[in-house]
Amino acid sequence: MSRRPLIAGNWKMHLTVAEAVQLAKALAETARNCPDRDVLIAPPFTALAAVCTAVAKSTLLVAAQNVAWEVQGAFTGEISPTMLTDLGIAWAIVGHSERRQIFGESSAMINRRIHGALGNALHPILCIGETLAERESEQTFTVLQQQIQEGLDQVTAEQMRTIVLAYEPVWAIGTGKTATKEQAQEVHAFIRGLLTAMYEKAVADSTRILYGGSVKPDNIDDLMQQADIDGVLVGGAALQVESFSRIICFQ
Ligand SMILES: O=C(CO)COP(=O)(O)O
C-alpha cells in the first residue's frame, strides 16, 4: 500500500504576517519542484488569511493550528471551522501536546474538535504522544492507545479517510532529542495495528501517520525510509526556507 508522503510544518507562535508570507511563497516554490508529495504549513492564526492568498495558486496546503467545535457563539479566543473554510483552509492540527499540556486540553475536548473539523470539511491532523515519564515507566503504548481511542471516539471508517495522525513524543519536541528511527517505526507500526483493530486493515493501510519531534535535515532521510512513517510534522526546522526545503526534498 503506498501512501502519499506528507511533509508538514507547524510554525507555532512565530512570524509576523510579512515574514509568514515570504516563507510561504518560498516554500510553494520548493513544493512545486517535488510534485510526488504533499507539503503543508500551519501558520499562526494572524497570518492565515495573507498566507492563503499568497499561495492560492500553488500546491502548498495550509492548516490552522487548532479549531473550535462550534461554528459560532460565545467562545472567546476560539476560531471556528467555518471561519477557516471561509479563508479556503482545508486542514487543522488538533490535540498538539502543547495544547494538551500547557492549555489543559482534555481528550474529550480534542475529540469534539475532531468532530468540529470533520463536520465542516476540514481534514484534522490528530497529534498524540507520550511524555518522558510515561516512556520511562513503559506506559507508551497504553497512553497512545488511550489518546487514539478517545481522540477518534465516534469517528467512522469513512471519516478516517480524511484524518492524518501525528506521533509526536513529548520528550522529542524542541529538545533536539529525536526518537531513533527504530523507536519511531516501532510506535508507528503499533498505531497502524491499533487502527486495524479499531476499524479494518484497509483503513489502517491508507491512514497517513506522521512523526514529529526534532525532525531536521540530517535525520529526515532515515525517518522517511521507515515502512510506517508516511511523513513528518516539523516545528523549529520548518521556520527557515533552507532547512524545511531540505526536509521537503527528502530522499
Ligand atoms: O511539535 C512539533 C511539531 O508539531 C515538533 O517541534 P520540533 O520540530 O521543534 O521538535
UniProtKB/TrEMBL annotation:
State which pathway it belongs to: Carbohydrate degradation; glycolysis; D-glyceraldehyde 3-phosphate from glycerone phosphate: step 1/1; Carbohydrate biosynthesis; gluconeogenesis
Q: Which residues bind substrate?
A: N10, W11, K12, G174, S214, G235, G236
Q: Where in the cell is it found?
A: Cytoplasm
Give the enzyme's main class according to its UniProt record, as a single word: isomerase
Which GO cellular component terms, listed alphabetically, does the Swiss-Prot or TrEMBL entry include?
cytosol
Catalytic activity field: D-glyceraldehyde 3-phosphate = dihydroxyacetone phosphate
The record's listing under InterPro entries reads: Aldolase_TIM (IPR013785), TIM_sf (IPR035990), TrioseP_Isoase_bac/euk (IPR022896), Triosephosphate_isomerase (IPR000652), Triosephosphate_isomerase_AS (IPR020861)
Active site per the UniProt annotation: H96 (electrophile), E168 (proton acceptor)
Write out the similarity annotation.
Belongs to the triosephosphate isomerase family.
Q: How does it assemble?
A: Homodimer.
Protein purpose: Involved in the gluconeogenesis. Catalyzes stereospecifically the conversion of dihydroxyacetone phosphate (DHAP) to D-glyceraldehyde-3-phosphate (G3P).
The entry's protein name is: Triosephosphate isomerase
